[in-house]
Amino acid sequence: MSKILEVEINKKDKEVYTIVIEPDFNKLPEILVNIFSSCNKFMLVFDSNTEKYFREKILQILMCVNKKIHTFSFTAGEDSKNIITVQSLYEELIKYNFERNDVILAIGGGVVGDLAGFVSATYLRGIRFAGIPTTLLAMSDSSVGGKTGVDFMGYKNMVGAFHQPKLVYMNTDSLNTLPEREYLSGMAEVIKYGYIWDSKFLTYLSENSDKIISKDRESLEYIIFNSCRIKKEVVENDPLEKGLRAILNFGHTIGHAVEKLMEFRLLHGECVALGMMVAGRIAVNRRLMSEGELLKMKEILIKYKLYRKFEVSEVSFNLNDVLLATKSDKKMQGGKIKFILIDEVGKAEVYKDITDEELLDGIKEMFEG
Question: What is the pTM for the complete model shown?
Fold first, then answer.
């Protein structure tokens, strides 16, 4: 059953885009033609994984759109999310004479969406863009909200721009191509929404974990729709992250630091889960959360196979290394880290007064002993 969300990004200028949740790609051609009737060319951007699973299927289904279609692919993985890949895509767009009225379609997970979105934001000072996310992480989070970017000098998303898509089309059946670990990585972002915005949604996630883990279609539609609904409500009020939108970074400051220190050997959701537990410990120490609530957070993250502590001997970094890595976070403001804490389940706040001592105490949640 189709589910559609209209996301109003700028209430004054009525800039609106559509999120479509479907069980297949059957409606994609009609929707693309309706939204992009004036374009002449589409550039389909894949990574090597999504090219293997979706390239021929999408090319075949788009045969009826009567537009010129070109494709671009790069090696899957965070290592490819860089300026070199961006330059290669620029060269393809120039080669095929892409104009501002033409469209880039990102088919894949967060890396594909971030990179293709950044190219869309910067090529000719901005051309139109649509996302076709194929991972739970991208469907529930990164494809919505207009954040784009690439990594630079080992720092995640250090170079980027805000550039809203004109369409996000989600085929839930594409999640069947994902290994369990990558699929469940996306659940960290889904769980995050419950903690920062909607406690009833968090209860649903806790009580229906078996269905969600087994990719029950009805449950998938429910969690993706509600993740997008929550992100829509936050983003519409703060499209450029000047205030409220920062709460979407719950777990991410520490999470990004761990990603960098682990050289991306841990998946994004696994790192965010560690960051959530660190933030939870700081909130408990500040008496914002109870020890029992932190235990429940740990239990739901373990239920979705997202959280485990490091043995000191298995990693080459320590508490101070994690602390130092947070200092390079792009969300630093006036030399202070903007840190998101849960005041109560379903309500988050931005704090700028977290001390190094508090952070170090929280980071202990990542290590055994």
Answer: 0.91
